Amino acid sequence: MVVFRSREAVKHDHDDQPITPSSFDTSEVWERNAKGYDKEVGWDEVIMGIGLMRRWLVGHAKGDVLEVSVGTGRNFDYYKADQIDTATFTDRHEPMLNEARSKFEQYKEKFHKTFVQFKTANVDQPQTMDKGKYDTVIDTFGLCSCANPAEALVSLADACKSEDSRILLLEHGRSHYGWLNRLLDTNLDNHVKRYGCWWNRDVMGLFEEEKVKEKLEIETVSRWHFGTTCYIVAKPKKNAH
Ligand SMILES: C[S@@+](CC[C@H](N)C(=O)[O-])C[C@H]1O[C@@H](n2cnc3c(N)ncnc32)[C@H](O)[C@@H]1O
Hints:
Helix content: 25-40%
Order of helices and strands: HHHHEEHEEHEHHHHEE
Oligomer: single chain
Distance between the termini: 58 Å
Bound molecules: S-adenosylmethionine
CATH topology: Rossmann fold
Structural class: alpha/beta
């Protein structure tokens, strides 16, 4: 009984409120983590085969390409530059974008025929995003990091030039398995504060939200790592771009 009451007390303690994007802005996390980001995620990505998934996905980019939430530019290796006319790399956080800019120095030769630009843009704020300009729009592990992932998907659809454009996504979130979701839920606060990542999001559920359904449809999807990693090719709906 005492234990039960203590638990209730903790539950109602103000400091114990679950963390949400409106109660915690992750900007300072990205500013703090930018320099060490590649080292932090490098081995995890190797063990999980993420490099191969990036290669499959990003190899499809062609024409005028937008990559949002580009981070430190971990996809640069995988672009086939000869199929790309222009490449626009954006992120909300200048320290991450700066890491991408300096990494890009190694790829200048590969992209020598491509017009490349880096810009600050917030996927949660449509007014900062380009509209109707791109053949390929890419986001890898970005939906877990922004405040409003459904709004972000709408922004990605709006960035497309035509219904022939494609949105290429590699994202992570909730699993097929309850036991794993419980772990993600329980450790959410610490994870967000340490990594700026809302790792328990229902990525596939976002595509069921009305405003997302109006704008885009999924062409192919495959899920990996107990369902937590989602490889998605989507396209804007006719007349919705
Ligand atoms: C997990 S990292 C992924 C970076 C990169 N896409 C990759 O695959 O390695 C998430 C990125 O999203 C960026 N980000 C967070 N919130 C954002 C927002 N609202 N708009 C645009 N980028 C955002 C962060 O600055 C960070 O660079």
